[in-house]
Amino acid sequence: MTKCEKETEMSNKLKVAIIVPCYNEEDNVLKLYNEIKCTSFSLNIDVVPIFINDCSTDNTKIILSSNRIPHIDLPVNLGIGGAVQTGFKYAYKNNFDIAIQMDGDGQHPPSELEKIITPFVNTKIDVVIGSRYIEKEGFQSTFMRRLGINYFKWLNRTLIGIKIFDSTSGYRAINRRGLEIVANYYPDEYPEPESIILYTLNGLTISEVPVTMRERQGGESSIRSYKTVYYMFKVTIGIIFLFIRLKFNGKRHTI
Amino acid sequence: MFFVFRLIAKGKLREEYSFVWIACTVLLLLFSVWRNGLDVIAKMLGVYYAPALVFMTAIFAIIVFLVHLSVVNSKQHDQIKILTQELAMLKKKIEEQENNNNL
């Protein structure tokens, strides 16, 4: 009897994995881990942070293991997409209900976690994106980046007819239905805008919640000035071909 | 041709790639035996300058082969990614079990 009650209580509690991909983030990982640990939630959830060390060349690995931070070490550098997907696969295999993706550079404050998790509890939503543009609060990023984001907003609207304010935001969460898809296929290099197409065409519902972001605490952005053109080009190609592939191959995604 | 065969025998070149190279060497041998062959074919196709035909077919073949190599490369890229992820997760699992045993 008591055992039974305990089991139902366990199953009611949502298991949430926080996936933090990090590449050369020795200054930030420990601070971020402590922040996540200190965050308290009013929801009935079980939060497990998991850091993905994408073969960093600095002391990230040593900091992660010496502080006993739960982490996965990739033996080969896979880039942001591959690193995040590792986390998704891990979350999927270990029966997590929700996986949250959070940058390792401290741009995404753990205090906003609850805002991102709440929609899953109340509504039937598959993907939640933390957006910094709905309510224009906090760090708003550079002019060039906002220009790019407007371009993606337009691209998304023309292709799949939905409006996403912050399609490059890496602060997002997906449920098990979404995990099943991204464990199979996830875009490689700059996955955020592309994955929106992936979710929508697989019939997942996306919702955006306003969050406040900070300016990066250290380290370098994965999108530096001279790479912007390449970024735009690569993502556009990626989006268009992903769209074509999913549209004409039905709902299959074989890679 | 001898060089290609030796590579295959040593196991340095996989059989499926060697096919292309063997075909190339056979063609080379063919035209070195049949000297006039090139002119005959060029005339048949209406190419005035026979060596141009050689360059054209060679460049075409090279481009096709390069595209093929890009496809192979992309496939291997995906395979490496999957292997890396599986490996990393296995390492994590082993570490967890070792920690449990130590407790």
Key terms:
heterodimer; A: 255 residues; alpha/beta; Spore Coat Polysaccharide Biosynthesis Protein SpsA, Chain A; disordered N terminus; disordered C terminus; B: mainly alpha; 87% helix
Describe this protein's structure.
The complex is a heterodimer of chains A (255) and B (103). Chain A has 255 residues and is α/β, with parallel strands linked by helices. Chain A has one domain: Alpha-Beta Complex (Spore Coat Polysaccharide Biosynthesis Protein SpsA, Chain A). A seven-stranded mixed beta sheet of chain A has the order 3-2-1-4-6-5-7, sandwiched between helices. Chain B is mostly helical and 103 residues long. In chain B, 87% of the residues lie in helices and 0% in strands. Chain B contains four helices and no strands. In chain B, helix 3 crosses helix 4. The model of chain B has no long low-confidence stretch (mean pLDDT 83). Classes of the chains: A alpha/beta (255), B mainly alpha (103). The interface between A and B is medium-sized, with 15 and 10 residues.
Describe this structure in a few short sentences.
The complex is a heterodimer of chains A (255) and B (103). Chain A is an alpha/beta fold and 255 residues long.
Helical segment count of chain A = 9
As an assembly, this protein is: heterodimer
What name goes with the CATH superfamily of chain A?
Spore Coat Polysaccharide Biosynthesis Protein SpsA, Chain A
Name the structural class of chain A. alpha/beta
Largest sheet data of chain A? 7 strands, mixed
CATH topology of chain A: Spore Coat Polysaccharide Biosynthesis Protein SpsA, Chain A
CATH class of chain A: Alpha Beta
Q: What's the total number of strands of chain A?
A: 7
Strand order of the largest sheet of chain A: 3-2-1-4-6-5-7
The biggest beta sheet of chain B reads: none
What is the overall silhouette of chain B? Answer: elongated
Radius of gyration of chain B: 24 Å
Shape of chain A: globular
**Euclidean distance between termini CA atoms of chain B:** 63 Å
Total separate domains of chain A: 1
Percent of residues of chain B in beta strands? under 5%
Instruction: Summarize the helix and strand pattern of chain A as letters.
Output: HEHEHEHEHEHEHHEH
Helical stretch tally of chain B = 4
Low-pLDDT segments, ≥5 res of chain A: 1-9, 251-255
H-E order of chain B? HHHH
pLDDT averaged over residues of chain B: 83
